[in-house]
Structures are given as structure tokens and as C-alpha cells.
Predict the 3D structure of the following.
Amino acid sequence: MKTTNSKDLVKVNQILTIMQEHFGQSVNLARIKLMTMLLHALCVVQTVSLHKLAGAMPTDVDRDSSLRRLQRFFAKYVLDLDIVARMIFSLLPVKTNLVLSMDRTNWKFGDFNINILMPGVTYKGIAFSLIFSLLPKRGNSNWEERKKIMERFIRLFGQDCIDCLVADREFIGKEWIGWLNSRRIRYYIRIRQNFRIVKPSTGERIRAWWLFNDLRVGHEKFYHKLFLHRGEYVYLAGSRIKNSDGIPELQILICFNRPEGAVLTYKKRRGIETAFRAMKSSGFNIEDRTPTCVTECVSHVCLRWSAWLLYGRISLVNIKIYTLNR
């Protein structure tokens, strides 16, 4: 029989208090305790291997019994994702003027395709996910899928807490930009430099790069006048940067307003990439396990993000924020 470390029990009790506050009205105590021990184990072993998690759970029950409990939990129990999102939001170090970074990650394990669309709350070089969407396909998201996940965020937390949305070149399109404009959600979204832009005053169509071609590396420019991008009015900002191969290239952004802050704010987009690395190879190694169904995959992702926030919130280990920054 395993022996339980008293220090582990102290940490588990800290997590249990937070879990009961949010799940106490809808989940029985035994299941809350199981999730609490699982979150602690995730922080200790940082892997999704159920065998390793069962061995790290702070309980006197033997590992085989803990393993069977975990298998039943992932196979039969469906987490209330709204409760999980509200719990994670309550743990965030900031709750107003949020910069959301939207991105998508995907991987394949055997015949099982996993494609996750996620807006994350950026903070000091990292992004915390409150909600996500498991896309039933491979490849890019469409504007309706993005609209749906943003509407869910607004339903749970309100639009007033959002300062702006940043996203890469995948997240473009007339309908998507039109919807953001109609909701008056500030955005800074990168576009391809060969996209055509229209000057409303003259109707002249020009390539976007033409407006920023005089920039040197490290310099930026913005325009305090409106342009038409695929029929939608936008402001433009841009800079010349070096890509991952060290080759200079233009970074052109379309904006709802305040183009003067576009380049600086857009740098926060990298936080979502750091978050994905923390969920995968540099953190919880979520790719180590093949989910047997969509429900199990959703449960895995939710618990990873919960564990990660609790990991930092109650200092389960001596985590250093600079290890998460680029």
C-alpha cells in the first residue's frame, strides 16, 4: 500500500477548497476529490499517462485501483465546460482589459485527428485558455466557428472585459472581420502582404505591401485613415521584422481602431504559442496519450489547463515565469 506525504495532502486540500467552490453544487464530493488528486498528480508528473498519474495520486489506495478510477472517470464522466471556464477565470491574475490571442493547434495520433481552436488570455508572455472548441475536421477554422467561440466567451464573461483580439494570418475573411466590426470588438489581425487594399477616396486598388515597403527592419508605420479590405473598413499598421529564419519580411496588420498601438499589442499573440508548447512537449505532453473519444479529449484538455493555473496559483512546485517567456 502506498504511503501519503503530509505535504502532498496540504497541497491537495488547497486545491480541494477551490474545486468545491465551483463544482460543489453540481458534482458529488467523491468525484471532486478524485479530480483534485488528479490535478495534483498532473502537476507532479506533467504527463497524461494514466499509469503515471495513478502512481502519483496522493492516496493510500494502490495504483491499480487509482488507475481503474481514472479510466472510469475519463470514459463516463462529462465535465461541465462552463464551470471549468468560470473556475479558470477566477484564478486569472487579471480580469479586465484582456488581450485575447486566438490560434489553432492540431495533431494526429493514429487515425484520431485532434484540432483545437482556442482564444487565450495573454499575460506576461503566456496565454491562459478559458474555453476551446474541438473542431470535427482537419485544417483551418471558418468564420462561423470563430464567431461561435467568441460568442461563448462573451456569454460567460461579458464583452466589457475584452480590450482586443490578436490573431495570425489564418484568421481573416470578409464575414469574420465584418462580424468583429459589427460587435465593435477591437482587433489586430495580420494579413498577407500581397492582399489588395482599396483607398475609399479614390477607389484605387493597391497591394498592402506597397504602403509599407519603405520600412527598415525594426521600424513601424500606421495610417490614421480608413482602407477597405474585402469590403470592410479597417485601419492599417505594419512593421518590418525578421522571421524565424532571420529573413526580413513585412508584418501588416488590419485594425478596428487605434492603429498606433497595433504592432506593440500584436506581440502578445506569441503567448498562445507558448501555451500550446506548455500543453504539449514542454509541459503536460498531452500528445502522449490517444483519446478514445471526443469526450475523453475534452476532459483531458480542460484538466490540463486547470492544473496549469492551479500549479502557479498555489505554488505546487517552484515554477519560474521566465521559463515560459520567449
Summary: The CA atoms of residues 57 and 295 lie 22 Å apart. The longest helix spans residues 294-313. The mean pLDDT is 83.
